[in-house]
Design a protein that fits this description.
six-stranded antiparallel sheet, seven-stranded mixed sheet, 14 helices, single chain, alpha/beta
């Protein structure tokens, strides 16, 4: 009877799933939604966190900083043509261009046809000719000769052309989130490498990396190239977690060992394993810490339960343990393991 009571697996059956439920609950208190125990278990093996720049490390609140126009071209004309192209855009850069045009009271022509080239920009057929707003590759693909313009270390340079001729460029700058350097420092303190992917130019990307302390940067990437770089990081460092704001990130989120969406895009939430309802970067090291603590507590419960059961079983074999000891090894250990699992819910700090 003693052996029968001891061999009852209540402690394991109760405490291990409860540890994961407690981890999920601890995350939800901080606006971190884990999709289940599998997500928590996968996160403990993460060796590198790969992050999108815009909307993740930075605020994504782009503002027009400067207009550089070619000789003989009015700077307001450059802004007007760019705004015509971006009228229906939901991208933060496009929204900032429209906001600047609205602020200056510029009347915008409705284009006849608008075509968006992924990772390049937008072309719009207007009464004045074909308007182009995007990067160097977009202009070159349409046979426009790209002239040299002042280079800027920070920000995104949007080139503008009309009817086959380049007009100038707009400098759109984003701001780094206040908590990003601290959050990235906490990720690195857990022994995890940090990598940043962005479609921006190398100089702008490097400036953000220097401010925040990111280990490795891949710049000027098209959406499909981000997945290739993610696979490269996985080969070099091991299991990767990707954090993105949900804009064009669904393929990369699905391709990562753990995908984390910092936003509310339907595609991103569907593809992600973890969803951050807060836009704070602090959620990333917190989620990693919760995952590691959850797995640690689950293993503590397994080892503790099996060790006590084995000890009482051996003592019972030599007639040193009676039925009361067997009851403790079953129900008592189960309660202790449950209390140990619930600790996760009452931890004040997880990073």
């Amino acid at each position: 009877l003693t052996f029968l009571v001891i061999s009852c697996p209540c402690a394991l059956v109760l405490s291990v799933p409860l540890a994961f439920f407690a981890g999920i609950g601890a995350g939800s208190k901080k606006g971190i939604l884990f999709k289940g125990g599998v997500s928590l278990e996968a996160m403990k093996n993460v060796k590198a966190v790969v992050m999108d720049k815009t909307g993740t490390i930075t605020k994504g609140n782009f503002v027009l900083q400067q207009i550089d126009s070619l000789e003989g071209v009015d700077s307001q004309k450059v802004l007007e043509v760019a705004a015509i192209c971006e009228q229906n855009s939901t991208h933060p850069i496009g929204v900032s261009i429209l906001a600047a045009a609205k602020e200056k009271g510029i009347a915008l022509e409705k284009p006849q046809q608008v075509t968006e080239q992924a990772g390049q920009g937008i072309s719009a057929q207007t009464a004045q000719g074909l308007a182009l707003c995007g990067n160097r590759k977009l202009l070159e693909n349409h046979g426009v000769q790209v002239s040299d313009l002042p280079s800027h270390k920070e920000g995104t340079q949007v080139l503008v052309a009309l009817d086959g001729k380049m007009l100038g460029s707009l400098l759109i700058a984003d701001t780094v989130k206040e908590e990003s350097p601290s959050a990235i420092g906490k990720i690195k303190s857990q022994g995890i490498a940090t990598v940043m992917l962005t479609g921006d130019g190398p100089e702008s990307a490097q400036a953000v990396a220097e401010k925040t302390g990111v280990d490795q940067v891949f710049a000027r990437l098209l959406p499909e190239e981000k997945l290739d770089k993610l696979q490269q990081v996985r080969k070099e460092r091991g299991a990767v977690m990707f954090v993105g704001d949900g804009i064009n990130d669904a393929p990369v989120l699905a391709g990562a060992d753990v995908g984390a969406a910092m936003g509310s895009g339907a595609d991103a939430i569907e593809a992600a394993d973890v969803v951050f309802m807060t836009s704070s970067m602090e959620a990333v090291p917190q989620s990693l810490a919760i995952a590691r603590q959850t797995n640690s507590i689950a293993w503590q419960n397994v080892i503790f339960a099996l060790a006590i059961k084995a000890l009482v079983m051996v003592l019972g074999l030599f007639h040193y343990a009676n039925m009361w000891a067997a009851v403790f090894a079953d129900s008592g250990v189960a309660m202790l393991c449950v209390l140990n699992a619930v600790r996760l819910l009452y931890k004040k700090e997880h990073a």
